[in-house]
C-alpha cells in the first residue's frame, strides 16, 4: 500500500512539473506591456528618422527658393543728372525696380543712406521721406505692384548734397524692401539683362539718314489741315535746333555748326533767334546792321546745307509785339524780299507774347505783318506766337487769322514746368483744326535751367510725334544752363562729338535719331 502511494505522488509531481514548465514557456514568450510600448516608441522614432531627410530637403529647397528670389529682385538707382548749386550739388536720382520672379511684388519700399545736410527738393512717382540720414520712398496706389518678370521705372527725386561724390554713394546704398523683407539682388549683374528686355519689348525705331539734303528731297513745304506736307504731298516733320540770342552767341551762326547739327544730331531745321527787345536787341541798342548780317549768314548757311530755316523775331522782354511793330514790319519787308524765292525759309513773327498781352493784340499785329511777308513770299510758312509765352494756342483756335494759307501757331514748352495743362491746350487747338509748330522747347524748367524731366519730355514727344508736329529745341550755345545743347566746358563751335554735348544735347540727339 505504501508502495502504491509513492507511485501516485510521483505521478502528481510529474504533472506539476509539466504544468510549471508550460507556464514558464508561456511567460518567457510573452512580452511585457512596457516592452511593447518601448518597441512601439522605437518604431515611431525609426519612422520619424526615415522621414527626416525628405522634410529637411523641403526646408532647404524653400530656403533656396527664397534666397534666389532675393537675388532676382533688386533696385538700381542712377544719378541721371547733376549740377552745382548754392548749397553744394543737386542731382536727379532715378530708381528702377526689377522683378525677375514669376510672381508680382507688392508694397515695395526703397531706402538710401544720405549725408547730413541733405535736402529733398522734389520727387515723383513715390512717397519720399527724409528722416535723418535715411531717404526712403514708398509706393503709391498706381505703382504698388512690380509685375512678374518686369520692372518699375521713373521713380525719381532731386536732392541737394554737400559734394558730388555723395550722389554716387547714395545710389550705391539703395536697398529694396518688399513687405518689410530685404531684397539684395545684384543690380550690376542684371543691368544688361534689363536693358535687353526693354529692347525686346520696345524695339527702337531709328530714323535713317536721308540720302540727299532735306530741301532737295522735300522742297517747298505747305499745310494740309494741321500737317506740314512736302512737295510730294507727304507729311513731313521738321526737327531742329534754335540758336540762343545771336547778339550774345554769334559764334554759333556758321555753316560748320549747322552741318554738325544736320549730320550728327539729325536736324533738318535751324531757327535763328534775333531778340527784339533785350539788352543789345534789335530795337534796344543792338547793332541792327550786324544783326541782319548774322541772320543772312545763318540763312545762307542753312540753304547751302539744304536745311530749312526759321527767321525768328524774338519778342520776349518787350512782351507785346505791338511795342516794336513798325520795326518788325520793316525787318520782315527786307527779309521776305531777299528770300522770296527760297523754298526753305520760314518766318516767325513774334516769339513769346507775354505780360498780359492778349490774343487780340497778337492777332492785330499779325494782320499787319503777314501781308508784308505775303507780298514777297507768296506761300512761305509763317508762324504766329500766342499769348502767355506762346502757350495759349487754344485761345488762338477760337479766333485764328483768316484770309491767308500756310499760317501756323507757336506753342512753347519746358517739360519740367509745362505738363498736362499745356498739352491739353494743344490737343484742344488741334481738334479745332489749328496748325501748331513747337518752335521752342526744352526738357528742363521754364527758366531754361534746373532739372531735366525725362518723363514729361517723353509725354510731350508722344503728343508731338503722334500729331506730326514740327519742333526746334532751345538752344545752341555752351551757356551754363540746362537747356544749352553744348556742354559749358566745350569751346568748339562745330564738329561736336557726344562728349561735347550737354545732357540735354545727348537726349536731343537720341530723340532725333528715334532712340529715346
The outline comes out as elongated
Proportion of β residues?
Answer: 15-25%
Residues in helix, %: 25-40%
Radius of gyration: 40 Å
Strand order of the largest sheet: 14-15-16-17-18-19-20-21
Number of strands: 21
Q: Major beta sheet, specifics?
A: 8 strands, parallel, barrel
**Which parts are unreliable, with pLDDT below 50 for 5 consecutive residues or more?**
25-67, 186-204
What would you say this structure looks like, in words?
By secondary structure, the protein is of the alpha/beta class. It has 14 helices and 21 strands. The chain has helices at 2-29, 33-72, 164-172, 187-201, 214-218, 255-265, 288-304, 325-338, 359-376, 387-390, 393-398, 420-431, 454-466, 503-512; strands spanning 73-85, 88-99, 105-106, 108-113, 119-124, 127-131, 134-138, 145-146, 150-161, 175-178, 181-183, 222-224, 227-229, 239-243, 269-275, 308-314, 345-348, 382-384, 407-414, 436-442, 470-476. The protein has an eight-stranded parallel beta barrel with strand order 14-15-16-17-18-19-20-21, surrounded by seven helices. The chain has a five-stranded antiparallel β-sheet with strand order 6-7-4-10-11. It has a four-stranded antiparallel β-sheet with strand order 1-2-9-5. α9 (359-376) links the parallel β17 (345-348) and β18.
Amino acid at each position: 500500500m505504501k508502495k502504491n502511494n509513492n507511485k501516485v505522488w510521483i505521478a502528481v509531481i510529474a504533472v506539476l512539473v509539466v504544468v510549471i514548465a508550460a507556464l514558464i514557456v508561456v511567460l518567457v514568450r510573452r512580452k511585457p506591456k512596457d516592452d511593447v510600448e518601448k518597441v512601439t516608441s522605437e518604431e515611431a522614432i525609426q519612422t520619424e528618422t526615415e522621414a527626416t531627410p525628405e522634410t529637411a530637403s523641403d526646408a532647404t529647397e524653400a530656403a533656396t527658393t527664397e534666397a534666389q528670389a532675393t537675388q532676382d529682385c533688386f533696385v538700381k538707382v542712377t544719378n541721371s543728372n547733376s549740377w552745382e548749386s548754392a548749397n553744394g550739388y543737386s542731382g536727379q536720382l532715378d530708381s528702377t525696380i526689377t522683378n525677375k520672379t514669376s510672381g508680382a511684388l507688392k508694397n515695395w519700399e526703397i531706402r538710401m543712406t544720405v549725408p547730413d545736410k541733405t535736402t529733398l527738393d522734389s520727387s515723383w512717382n513715390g512717397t519720399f521721406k527724409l528722416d535723418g540720414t535715411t531717404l526712403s520712398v514708398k509706393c503709391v496706389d498706381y505703382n504698388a505692384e512690380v509685375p512678374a518678370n518686369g520692372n518699375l521705372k521713373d521713380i525719381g527725386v532731386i536732392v541737394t548734397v554737400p559734394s558730388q561724390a555723395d550722389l554716387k554713394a547714395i545710389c550705391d546704398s539703395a536697398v529694396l524692401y518688399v513687405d518689410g523683407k530685404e531684397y539684395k539682388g545684384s543690380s550690376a549683374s542684371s543691368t544688361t539683362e534689363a536693358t535687353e528686355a526693354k529692347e525686346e519689348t520696345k524695339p527702337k525705331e531709328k530714323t535713317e539718314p536721308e540720302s540727299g539734303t532735306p530741301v532737295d528731297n522735300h522742297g517747298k513745304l505747305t499745310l494740309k489741315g494741321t500737317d506740314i506736307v512736302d512737295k510730294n504731298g507727304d507729311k513731313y516733320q521738321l526737327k531742329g535746333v534754335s540758336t540762343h540770342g545771336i547778339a550774345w552767341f554769334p559764334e554759333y551762326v556758321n555753316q560748320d555748326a549747322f552741318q554738325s547739327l544736320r549730320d550728327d544730331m539729325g536736324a533738318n531745321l535751324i531757327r535763328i533767334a534775333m531778340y527784339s527787345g533785350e539788352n543789345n536787341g534789335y530795337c534796344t541798342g543792338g547793332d541792327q546792321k550786324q544783326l541782319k548780317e548774322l541772320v543772312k549768314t545763318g540763312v545762307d548757311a542753312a540753304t547751302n546745307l539744304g536745311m530749312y530755316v526759321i527767321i525768328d523775331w524774338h519778342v520776349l522782354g518787350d512782351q507785346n509785339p505791338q511795342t516794336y511793330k513798325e520795326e518788325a514790319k520793316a525787318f520782315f519787308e527786307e527779309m521776305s524780299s531777299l528770300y522770296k524765292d527760297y523754298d526753305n525759309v520760314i518766318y516767325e513773327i513774334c516769339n513769346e507774347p507775354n505780360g498780359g498781352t492778349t490774343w487780340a493784340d497778337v492777332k492785330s499785329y499779325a494782320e499787319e505783318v503777314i501781308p508784308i511777308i505775303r507780298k514777297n513770299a507768296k506761300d512761305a510758312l509763317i508762324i504766329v506766337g500766342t499769348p502767355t509765352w506762346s502757350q495759349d494756342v487754344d485761345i488762338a483756335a477760337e479766333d485764328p487769322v483768316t484770309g491767308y494759307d500756310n499760317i501756323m501757331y507757336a506753342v512753347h514748352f519746358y517739360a519740367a514746368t509745362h505738363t498736362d495743362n499745356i498739352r491739353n491746350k494743344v490737343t484742344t487747338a488741334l481738334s479745332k483744326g489749328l496748325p501748331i509748330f513747337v518752335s521752342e522747347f526744352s526738357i528742363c524748367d521754364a527758366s531754361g535751367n534746373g532739372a531735366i524731366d525725362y518723363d514729361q519730355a517723353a509725354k510731350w514727344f508722344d503728343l508731338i510725334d503722334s500729331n506730326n508736329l514740327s519742333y526746334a529745341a532751345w538752344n545752341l550755345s555752351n551757356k551754363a544752363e540746362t537747356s544749352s545743347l553744348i556742354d559749358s566746358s566745350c569751346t568748339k563751335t562745330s564738329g561736336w562729338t557726344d562728349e561735347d554735348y550737354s545732357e540735354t544735347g545727348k537726349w536731343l540727339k537720341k530723340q532725333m535719331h528715334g532712340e529715346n
